[in-house]
Structures are given as structure tokens and as C-alpha cells.
Amino acid sequence: MDVNNQHVENPWEKLSELIQLNDAGQIIAFFESINPADTALAVSRLKAAEQTELMMLLQPQDAAEVLEDFSDTLAGDIIGELPPEQAASILEELDSDHVADLLGELDEDEVNSIIEEMAPEDAREARSLLQYAPDSAGGLMIYEYLDYRSEQTVQDVQDDLQNNREKYSDYDVQYLYVTDAEERLQGVLRMRDLLFPQRRTRLGEVMIRTPFHVHVDATVDQLHNFFEDHHLFGVPVVDDQMRLQGVVLPEAVEEAKRKRSVRQFLGFSGIVGGEEFRSMPLLVRSGRRLSWLSLNIVLNIIAASVIALYQDTLSAVIALAVFLPMVSDMSGCSGNQAVAVSMRELSLGLVRPAELLWVLSKEVGVGVLNGLALGVLLGGVAYLWKSNFFLGLVVGGAMALNTLVAVLLGGLIPLVLKRMKLDPALVSSPLLTTVTDMCGFFFVLSFASVVLEKL
User: Does residue 300 contact residue 434 with C-beta atoms inside 8 Å?
Assistant: First the structure.
């Protein structure tokens, strides 16, 4: 869509007026006069009924161009409200990897009803893409590529490109692929490889044999590392039998990494179930937040119960109340550092979920050193404040021991959760916080109970 970066105040109001006029031409002209950010803003502020009416007014190709400016979550919400035949006609105008992203935002019944309305070839591609994990090569690949047989000639390819130039104009054609009768990848051709050979030359003579390729199950991190090592415009994706399945573009990998970072940030922030936008229904937004907050209430009640067990000790030495949050918070920070390292190594394939003992052996030294350092520091502060050696010993010892526990658990929890098929980014932080709070309170108050008469 042509954009002149014009900024419009309250663009949704103007868009709403144009929808009421039922004039698709003016709507398209309006979209072309504003930047993509304002396009997404305008459509997101419309009522759900107006969004549906907008998509019904536009031609499928125009509607598809509008949806390309949205996040998958917003676009999926809009697609899900359309009649299946209209949704199918719009999705058929999008690149195959984008289709898979949007269908992934819908429930199974909606997906099936839309796919049933698609053209047979598009429906087959959509079903094929949905069988792969979204963050894998299979989930990121596109079907818009060109492949030929090794026995075909340069002239055959040139004729095909000329005869289908309108169709291929929407393809991201940087390479041509050579396959055999079983669709197994044989080689790759650069566009320049078609310019200099004689027209009768067979592709098998000029193709690059044994080309780089990735498996359909390759992860985002593996793909990212591939493109870091090989500065290519795309890489073919093959299955176990080396059959060509699609092509992954580097920009698709970067977008997948960005989406994963957003999901992890939302998970750490307590937003579960996907992205949240304030244009979403109230109950949806409330539910996504409450699912996390309710869990945290339970976990905090468990942690607070430890204090209740030692309320007599806490009442006798009020100074302990000052140090309880320090011990738990500092230990939590140390544990979260270990969590971050484990999650990073898991994502890079540098550690396996089963390597608990190896991670434990690597973290115990850090936990001991950092625990002693923090324990001496906090214990010294307690001693200088109250001039009580035993208070410093209680606080410092609890700090040191709880830091060790936090670091060890922080390193192990992501691995354990990964083995349990749970998302470490979502569960690690609250679980670690609860444990470090409970242990911190327990260590401080139980140590204080032992030397209560000295305090």
C-alpha cells in the first residue's frame, strides 16, 4: 500500500464515517494517505461490527493489505468474526506463512470452517503449515517458490518465468530450486545462473549441487544461527526424505524472534494467553490478568504462612521485620539471574533439560561465593545498626544460605519445567519467588529462634 506518512488525528473517526458511506474507494484512498501505524490504530478503535463491515466492503486483496499492518492477534480477531467464505478469500491473498500465523490465532472449529472455503491448493498448503510448530522452519516457511527438474533447460525456465510473470511477481524469487520426480531437493539456481549459459543447457549442469538446507523441525534459534553464518536470501526446507517443503526467509526468522521476545516479556509481566490490547473485550483482558494474579495470591499466602509460624519470634525481635524482605528480595534477584542463564542456554541448545546435575555443579560455586558476599554485607549492616553480633549472624547466615538455595533452584527450575512440557518463561519467576520467600523467612526466623535470648 502506498504511504506518504501523513499523520491524522483520531483516524478511527474518519474511518467510521467512510464505512457508513459504504464507499470502498474512499476507504482505500484514506488508508493510502496515512501511515501503517495509523491504519492499525484506526481499525483497532472501531467497534467489532464496524471492523467486520470494513472487511466486507473491501476487495479481498485490499483487505489483506490492511491486515498486514496489524499484529497477528488483532488480525486473527478480525478474521474470526468474518463469514468463513469472506475470511478464506482474504487469507488466499496473503503469503502462506502469514496465513499460518493468523489461523494459529483461531480455534479449531473456526480454522476448519475457513479452510473448507479455500481453494483446494490453498487449503492443502494451510493444513500442511498448521501441522508444524509455529516457531519451527515448517511453521515459518512459505510455499511461494519456484522449482524445476534437472533435465529441463535454461530456455524452459525462461519461458515459464515469462509466461507466468504476473503470478510470479508476488513471489520473493531470489533462488530457483531443482528437484527430482519425488520432489527431493537436488540443487539450487541463482537468477544469474540463467543469464549466461546457452539456452539449451540443462539445469543439472549449472545448478549448485548439495545446497544448504534446513529440516522442517529446525528451531528459530537454529535458523537464526544459520542466517548469521550464511548470508542468504532464503533457505530451502526439507523433510526426512529430503523432499522440498518450502522456503524460509531471514526476515521471517527475525519476526519470529521478536514475537517470542514479546511473549516472554508478557509472561514475566503476568499477561498469559497471548498478547493483550485495550481494544479487546473486557472479560478477555480481565481473565488473562487474573489467571496470573490468582496464582500469585496462592503463592504469597503460602509464603506468608511461614511468618505466621514464627510470629512470637518476630514479635520479640522487631528488627527482624526490617531484614525479612531484604533477604527474600536479594535472594530472588540472585535466583532470577540463574533462571535467565538457564533459559538462554535452553534456547540456544547449550544445555538439555535432563542435565540437572551438570547445571547444579556449575551453579553451586556461584551460589556459595555470592551468598557469602551478600551475607557478610547484610550481616555487617545489621551488626552496625543494632551493635548485636548475633543479629548480624542470623541475618547474614540466612542471606548466604537463601542465596545458595535461590541460585541452585533458579538454574534447575527452567530445566525441570521444560521436561514437564511447561513454559519456563511463564512459570519460573513466580515459582522461584515463592520458594525464596518461604526459605528466606524460614531461615531468618528459625535461626533467630535458636538464639532468641541473645537478640
Answer: yes
C-beta separation of 200 from 154 below 8 A: yes
Q: Which CATH number fits domain 147-258: 1.10.540.10, 3.10.580.10, 3.90.1300.10, 3.40.50.300?
A: 3.10.580.10
Cα–Cα distance, 401 to 415 (Å, whole number):
22
pLDDT digits (tens, 9 = 90+) for 216-261: 999 999 999 999 999 999 999 999 999 999 999 999 899 888 877 7
In this predicted structure, the answer to whether residue 15 has a pLDDT above a threshold of 50 is: yes
- The DSSP annotation for 322-390 comes to HHHHHHHHHHHHHHHHHHHHHHHHHHHTSS-TT-HHHHHHHHHHHHHHHHHHHHHHHHHHHHHHH--HH
| 3 state SS of 178 | strand
Which pLDDT score is estimated for 1? Answer: 44
CATH of the domain spanning 282-454: 1.10.357.20
Q: Which of 67-76, 325-334, 433-442 has the lowest mean pLDDT?
A: 67-76
- Confidence tier at 3 by pLDDT (50, 70, 90): very low
Reply yes or no on whether the pLDDT at 344 is more than 90: no
Is the fold of 147-258 the same as that of 282-454?
no
CATH 1.25.60.10 fits 11-132, yes or no: yes
Any idea where the domains of the chain sit in the sequence?
Answer: 11-132, 147-258, 282-454
Largest CA distance in the chain: 99
Nearest one of 334, 343, 409 to 370, comparing CA atoms = 334
Which uninterrupted H or E stretch holds 105? Answer: none
Cell of 385: 545498626
Express each pLDDT in 278-296 by its tens digit.
666 777 777 766 766 676 6
Q: Cα(81)–Cα(55) distance, rounded to whole angstroms?
A: 10
* Dist CA 269 CA 289 (whole Å): 10
Orientation of helix 424-450 relative to helix 250-269, angle to 10°: 30
